[in-house]
Amino acid sequence: MAKKIVKIILLSLAAAGVIAGLFLLSRYNYLLFHFSIEIASIIIGICLFIIVINTFRLTNNVFLLFLGTSFLICSLIDLIYTVAYKGMNIFPGITPNIPTQLWVSARFLQAVCLLIAPFILNKLATKRCIILMSIFFPLIFVGIVLSIFYFKNFPVCYIDGVGLTPFKKVSEYIISGIFLGSIIIFTTKRKLIGEYYYLILFSLIFSILSELSFTLYTDVYGLYNTLGHLFKVISFILIYRIFIGISLRNPFALLFKNLKESNEKLAIMSSIDGLTGISNPTTVFKELKKQYDIARRFDKNFSIIMIDIDNFKNINDVFGHPAGDEALKCLANIIKSSERKVDIKGRFGGDEFIISPIETDVHAAQIIIEKIMEKLKSADPTGGRFGPFKITVSAGVSGLRGDKTLDNIISDADKALLESKKNGKNRATILI
């Protein structure tokens, strides 16, 4: 822990020193500062794409591919922006408006892609997805370049002697708003991101600070322009750290997290009866066996209630099978509302249900089934959709006594249920 803290302090001091040095460089020779810091950002953006391409076989992650490709295109636009910057004299006759337009277009693309990225965090890249990206991003790049240099229909962003146009200022605020939206969306998905959440958070914060700085300058060599570029390179470095962590240090983190969540969902689905939403027979038997063993070992009460809907065949014959399904769901919901979460409850098969209240004797179990019967008196299983009808149930109760096995208890509860049927239904019978 101490080594980690020392490492963080040393890295922070080194970063502060580099930033201070760049700031002093901007005061000494702004063009050199601007060229250096933009080239650093461009190299980072290109490196992100190189990392993604070279680790794609390991990750197969569309999130990394999407962001890596978007940063590559942004970096290529930034490269043109850098060489077109005022004072570089590489493109004769170019006014400060053109590099400003390039800047705005690159930041818009970056912001929108970061807004989309959270929605594909844990997705695998398909062949169709790869083809779409390989077409979409080059088209965006060509479209931006043609719009600014050839068609010249991109809105004016900077006027000599006046400064930033309203379009440029409003664009920076919109871009900041998009970055803020990305923060909100990434925050809702922070469990998927894990340890990289704060890197993304601070990267987006510095992106916002960068954009806001660029709404304030009137001189392309001024202080606010300097701060905007410093904030931008910090944002890129933080994104670079995320790519290094995910692609190289832990390439399977997002995929395993997604796989784990999928497995958990499948495990839940495989344990639940699809119609009623309570445990299926396999899960019920596992839970009963576990609770039975605990009761035997620690001398606890253990009881089982078997429940069967009276005249269920008649419901299906008269009102139809959809009405029968609604009757099953109605009973399941009443069972759930009448039992504690820890109690075992599930569908035994057909129209039979099984309940095992934790550490409850047969007499307390009989009281529970009587409450369920009472609730059924006022229940309308179908809400009148299939015609008015009521349901009643018969029940059998048995419990642990002496050397009775779990199978014996279930069998006795089933026998008690049959006794309830023989004796007129809509009643509960205890068989000890």
Write the layout of secondary structure elements.
Elements: H1 2-28, H2 30-59, H3 62-83, H4 97-116, H5 127-150, E1 158-159, E2 163-164, H6 166-188, H7 190-193, H8 197-213, H9 223-249, H10 253-271, H11 281-298, E3 303-309, H12 312-319, H13 321-338, E4 344-349, E5 352-356, H14 362-377, E6 393-399, H15 406-422, E7 428-430
Parallel strand pairs: 6-7
Antiparallel strand pairs: 1-2, 3-5, 3-6, 4-5
Q: Which CATH class of the largest domain is shown?
A: Mainly Alpha
Number of helices: 15
User: In order across it, which strands form the biggest sheet?
Assistant: 4-5-3-6-7
Total number of domains: 2
State mean pLDDT (0 to 100 scale): 86
Q: Which consecutive residue ranges, at least 5 long each, have pLDDT under 50? A: none
CATH architectural designation of the largest domain: Up-down Bundle
The percent range for strand residues is 5-15%
